[in-house]
Amino acid sequence: MKELEERIKRxxxxxxxxxxxxxxxxxxxxxxxLMEAIGRVFADxxxxxxxxxxxxxxxxxxxxxxxxxxxLGVPMxxxxxxxxxxxxxxxxxxxxxxxxKQVTSQVSISRKFLTSEDNVLIIDDFLANGQAAKxxxxxxxxxxxxxxxxxxxxxxxxxxxRALLEDEGMRVVSLAxxxxxxxxxxxxxxxxx
Amino acid sequence: MKELEERIKRxxxxxxxxxxxxxxxxxxxxxxxLMEAIGRVFADxxxxxxxxxxxxxxxxxxxxxxxxxxxLGVPMxxxxxxxxxxxxxxxxxxxxxxxxKQVTSQVSISRKFLTSEDNVLIIDDFLANGQAAKxxxxxxxxxxxxxxxxxxxxxxxxxxxRALLEDEGMRVVSLAxxxxxxxxxxxxxxxxx
Lengths: 193, 193
Description:
Order of helices and strands of chain A: HEEEHEHEEEEHEHEE
Number of domains of chain A: 1
CATH topology of chain A: Rossmann fold
Largest sheet of chain A: 6 strands, mixed
CATH architecture of chain A: 3-Layer(aba) Sandwich
CATH class of chain A: Alpha Beta
Distance between the termini of chain A: 6 Å
Oligomer: homodimer
Structural class of chain A: alpha/beta
Largest interface: A-B, 39 and 40 residues
Number of helices of chain A: 5
Number of strands of chain A: 11
Radius of gyration of chain A: 16 Å
Strand content of chain A: 35-45%
Strand order of the largest sheet of chain A: 5-4-8-9-10-11
């Protein structure tokens, strides 16, 4: 997605050898128009799949997932990283290790929002080691739901996440694919859409 | 907001004497069309205020804040409840006590996303004791930003949050105002929009 690559070049900041900060338009401050454009591309890529739910994980996945769901005409569900005392129902849960935050969190979705009738599109802001996407796929599997694919805003193609998902037969659509960082500049591989 | 009140009556669930669960369309599973309608009402209520940023707190505030920001043509910023190691900049921080989760969290926004030039509209999903909104107002004050008002999706009018904010001279626009719960049914006070 050309518009996204250009935005990353203009406003992204490379920290060290592996971290890309996009907190001015995606992960902290959010550009709604760009998010809607991203939602359009994801919705278009999966429009033949009869998606019934878009599933993401709080918090940075919510904006792109919301527009994708709206354009597909289905609800969005975001997995939570901690339990609240108002979450009384039976929960689907899985463990996700975050390399960025160096903690293992439990992610959960109320069982009533995912069923064996669902055909799910998973959306997330980043794909690096694939742990978050894997955790969301596990939640869907626990519910007996089908997963039609995974839509990723920014893929770090030099890490193992994409291979992990594709080895399980998962379709992955990444809008910006980062081959690596060179002298503080982002080098892109060809995106999927 | 009639459409919201009807949705609360239809899909909200009252737990005990103080808790309203709206996890089927707002706080866990999200209805994008309803969120856009909510964004339109907030944007309309504050359209003369020359808003430059919409500020909310992760995670349930993001969806209504995102559409409000889009319709006003400004960025949305969501405050984070915990620090990540990629948040290296100077942070604005304040403490927020959650009566629901019974924990105090630190909420933070990167200083670079709020300045003394900003005129902020704060959006949140619930107003109960007003602690979250108060924390966000404090972040704005630390940055020297003006706060034009607070937009709330669901206000628990039998709790003290609204008075707390209005006593500080803050304009509060709540789309659904809950006077109380009677026999598991929601009783509404007149909403602000």
